[in-house]
Structures are given as C-alpha cells and as structure tokens.
Amino acid sequence: MLLDSAISEALLRRKPVYIEVACNLADLTHPSFARPPVPYALKTDHTNQASLDSAVEAALAHLGKAVKPVLLAGVRTRPARTRAAMLRLANASKYPVAVMPDAKGMFPEDHQQYIGMYWGAVSSPCTCEVVESSDVVICVGGVWTDYSTVGYSLLLKPEKMIRVDNNRVTICNGPTFGCVVMADFLEALAAKVTANETGLTMYKRIVLPTTEPLKQGDGEMLRTNVLFKHIQHMLTPTTSLISEVGDSWFNTLKLKLPPGAEYELQMRYGSIGWSVGAVLGYCCAERQSHPDRRVVACIGDGSFQMTAQEVSTMLRYGVDPIIFLINNGGYTIEVEIHDGPYNVIKNWDYTGFVRALHNGDGNLWTAEARTEPELESAIAEAVQRRGQLCFIMVVTHRDDCSKELLEWGSRVAAANSRKPYGTGDHH
C-alpha cells in the first residue's frame, strides 16, 4: 500500500518520492505475495464543475472592474499543462505577465507581454512598480516565504490578489472555491476573459533598455557583473542553467533566457550546496531525454565545499556540464544577512581538487580565470568540449556582489532579527 501510494504520487505530482525499505526486511516474504497483485489504478485530481463555474464568475466580476490587471506566475505553474494554460490566459487577456523568482523559465521570456521578475525591492526594472500598482493581480501557483517575499516586505496585498493555488481559487479577501484544478481554472478563465492592455502599456512607457558592463582592462581583476555578461552570451535554446544559493541567484535571475532554455534554483529552503548534486541529477536525466542539452552551473565556493564530492560521481558517469566555480573567499549571501568571521572559509585549490577526483579516469577539462580575457578564452574552449566536464574557477573580490543582494540581505536580516510576538516589545 505504501509503495503504491509513493509511486502514485510520483506519477501524479511529477515530483520525486522516497521509498525506504529497512535492510532486515528487504528479503522477507509476506503472505500477500502468494496472491495475484491488486490491479493498480492511478488516482487523479478532479475539478468540481459547479465550483469551477462559480470561481470563474467571481474572478471575471473583479477583473471587469479592474483598470490595470496583471498576471503573476509562481513556482507551482511548473507542470506542462499548467504552463500551457498560463500562456493561453496571457494571450487571451493581454495582461502583462511577471514571474516570481522561483518560477523563472516557466513563462517564455521572449513573449511580448513578459515584463520580468517580481521580487519586491529586488525585482526586474519597472516590474515591481507595475505589479504593486495594479488593482488586481492574478497570482498563479505562488509560494510565499521569507525569501520569496524579501523578508515579508512586499507591498502586494491579499485584497488585490486572485490567488490560484493547487485545487483552490481565492478571490481577494473574499470567497474561496475548492476542488478546482489550477489548469482547469486558467483554461476556463481564458475562454471568457476580456482583453486589457493597460498594464502592459504602462510598463512599455517606463521601462528602459538594458545595458552591459564595459570591457575590462587586461590586468584588471574580473568583476562579477562582467562574468555574467559573458554567461549571458553563451546561453542557447539548449542550455539548462542551474544557480546555487547566494549571489548567483541574483545574477542569474537577471539573465534573459533564450526560447527553450531552462532554469533551476532552490529557493524554498535556501539549501547551500544544493546545486552540485542537482547538476549531477539534471545531467543524468537530460542525457536520456534531451541529449542535445547542456547544463551550465554557477556555484559559489562556500556552497561547493558543502557537496564537492558529487563531482566525483559526475566524472564516473561521464556527464559534461560547464561549472563556473565563483571563488570570492566566503559565504557572500551570509555576509549580507549577518556578517561574522564564520563567513570566511579556507581557500581550496579548486581545480587541483577536481583533478584529484578525476585521478586519470574520466573526461575532465579545467581552467582558471582572474581577468576578462582569461574568462573569454575559457568559455570559448569549454563550449567546444562536448563530452567533457568543464570546470572553470573564476576569482572575484570578496565584496563584489550584486546590488540586489545588498538590498535583499538587509531586508531579510531585519525580518530575521524581529522580536517574537508576545515579548511585549513587538508592535
């Protein structure tokens, strides 16, 4: 029964499950094994038609009175059918579409209504202003945590939100309609919504073209924004970009994904070191399903030291990601939240470490870049080396981080240090 439930959840939710069998039970027999197995049936989610009709009617009533509505996509729009339904609603409504940071890549960034990432004070240029000034925001599949809300500092209020969550729709501060599958609601709303381009027009009036950092001198220490300028240029429709927790979040979220490119980050728990194992799993999965794709990963030195041994397994299985190891001497994101001597780490010989894991067995190429010309040369070589794990260590200054991390870190720090309710000092 438990095994059936786990398999059912994996197939239904399109998410990994864990099946653990105690070692002293694995080879035992059970009386039920003597009988033919019970026919297996996969449970499914169902929409209550009356609830769906009422939810759509209530949503249309609010949208009909709205001046500049906006669509906001969250991480739970990941399933393929939900993405397609989200796109259908966008095309029908003509509303501007923003994504939350953990939903990057789940709505096409070349779409004419895409206005960027909404993340409060560290949003894409002009996106926060459009979203937070909207009178109705249809938020689809959002997950609200201290990280995704920038320390609970968003000005997006529940009374202005139509929240479309798994199996329920909530209309502002009003009624909630249950037993409504997310994709069913989006498709039904798309069939009836009236187009309104006001919000998109406002965005186009205020947004400015983006610019690139200037070229650095030959002997100048590599800057982080210059590093990501060149990572932007190497992205293709067959790139899968993976970002480690930390300043890589903020820098990769600013990159524009070509059509077909994929993006992954771990925001829910902020698990430092997550990306190294994720690169291994992603490469193995894509080798089977999309062998033309290539993983590009941006990993900080502090995070890498948590899970570096996974590179050994990458070499064993012959996967070929391009890994940028960003060596700035510490846990930069933690410095901006709560600085202290514990954020300084022991410097490794990172390329030497990876070569030691290689030990003459497998396909590995390494490089080090401390200047822009060295970085350009390393990238040009790495993209040509398919079939080889390419490990590029880039060295940047300890205090060289994005302005978004400075802002986000100060707000999260303030949230982390607030006094608990009930202490008598909280107002």
TrEMBL record:
Cofactor(s) recorded in Swiss-Prot or TrEMBL: thiamine diphosphate; a metal cation
Record keywords, A-Z: Decarboxylase, Lyase, Magnesium, Metal-binding, Thiamine pyrophosphate
Residue span(s) of domain Thiamine pyrophosphate enzyme central: 56-189
UniProt GO BP: aromatic amino acid family catabolic process to alcohol via Ehrlich pathway
Entry EC no(s): 4.1.1.1
Pfam families for this protein: TPP_enzyme_C, TPP_enzyme_M
The keyword Metal-binding is annotated on this UniProt entry: yes
The organism's place on the tree of life at top rank: Eukaryota
GO molecular function: magnesium ion binding; pyruvate decarboxylase activity; thiamine pyrophosphate binding
One GO CC term on file: cytosol
Thiamine pyrophosphate enzyme TPP-binding domain segment(s): 263-387
InterPro entries, A to Z: DHS-like_NAD/FAD-binding_dom, PDC/IPDC-like, THDP-binding, Thiamin_PyroP_enz_cen_dom, TPP_enzyme_TPP-bd, TPP_PDC_IPDC
Presence of keyword Magnesium: yes
Catalytic activity: a 2-oxocarboxylate + H(+) = an aldehyde + CO2
Subunit structure: Homotetramer.
Family: Belongs to the TPP enzyme family.
Record-given protein name: pyruvate decarboxylase
Organism: Volvox reticuliferus
